[in-house]
Specification:
Blueprint lengths: L3 H8 L28 E9 L7 H4 L1 H7 L5 E9 L5 E6 L4 H17 L6 E4 L8 H9 L3 E4 L9 H15 L7 H17 L24
Parallel strand pairs: 1-4, 4-5
Antiparallel strand pairs: 1-2, 2-3
Helix pairs in contact: 6-7
Length: 219
């Protein structure tokens, strides 16, 4: 039987918390493209590095904060296919236009190898995605570039959701003793995400189940 809270929410047309965007509190409009490659979401996630010896999860909050000085940042460049949720991701030391463009060329090659023809790419309005190199790389491959609405990162929701997942299941999943140790764990986590981890929107199946060239290759 529905709870009183549920009945009140339903009466006033309010969404459940699980259906709201964390940042804005607005209801998320979910959509899914019909085929792989129709739209690929691209984004960069800035992540604080773990200092040698570990951060607060290893040393405790006070010592970890002291050890954090000058650890620097990593930048995770990621591309996620809208239909399959298949992800290609690399860790870099910056978010410069040259880095972003070179990343995309490798991501595009990866999707092509998987049998996916990329038609459109969606990014935010970051300077690296407004560069001539980025524009030319997409144009050379016949790919249309779309941008999110300003100050509305949820428009790029598939890759934003991927970013939250990698924070929970990789970046902060266990107490790493160095940034090197954490980075070494990333390829295996990404493989598991693509080939083994069930996705609610995919009826419990992994992204590879929706990619013709990867179907059945879950090893």
């Amino acid at each position: 039987m529905p709870s009183t809270v549920h009945r009140v929410l339903t009466r006033y047309g309010l969404a459940r918390l699980a259906h709201l965007d964390r940042a804005t509190g607005r209801a998320i409009r979910r959509y899914e493209r019909d085929r792989p490659g129709e739209l690929v979401h691209v984004d960069i996630k800035k992540l604080g590095n773990i200092p040698n010896g570990g951060g607060h999860k290893v040393l405790g909050r006070a010592a970890g904060r002291k050890n954090r000085t000058n650890a620097g940042y990593s930048y995770l460049h990621t591309a996620v296919d809208d239909h399959s949720r298949l992800a290609y991701s690399e860790i870099h030391t910056d978010e410069k236009k040259e880095t972003a463009t070179a990343f995309w060329k490798r991501a595009h090659a990866y999707f092509t190898e998987c049998g996916i023809t990329v038609e459109r790419v969606l990014t935010d309005n970051g300077s690296c995605y407004r560069s001539r190199g980025w524009r030319d790389a997409l144009a050379a491959a016949g790919i249309t570039h779309k941008r999110t609405r300003p100050y509305r990162p949820q428009t790029n929701g598939k890759v934003e959701r991927f970013n939250r997942t990698l924070l929970d299941e990789w970046a902060y999943a266990r107490p790493y003793r160095s940034e090197t140790e954490r980075r070494e764990a990333f390829p295996q986590w990404l493989h598991s995400y693509n080939h083994h981890r069930g996705h609610t929107a995919l009826k419990g199946q992994p992204p590879a189940s929706r990619v013709p060239n990867l179907t059945g290759q879950y090893s």
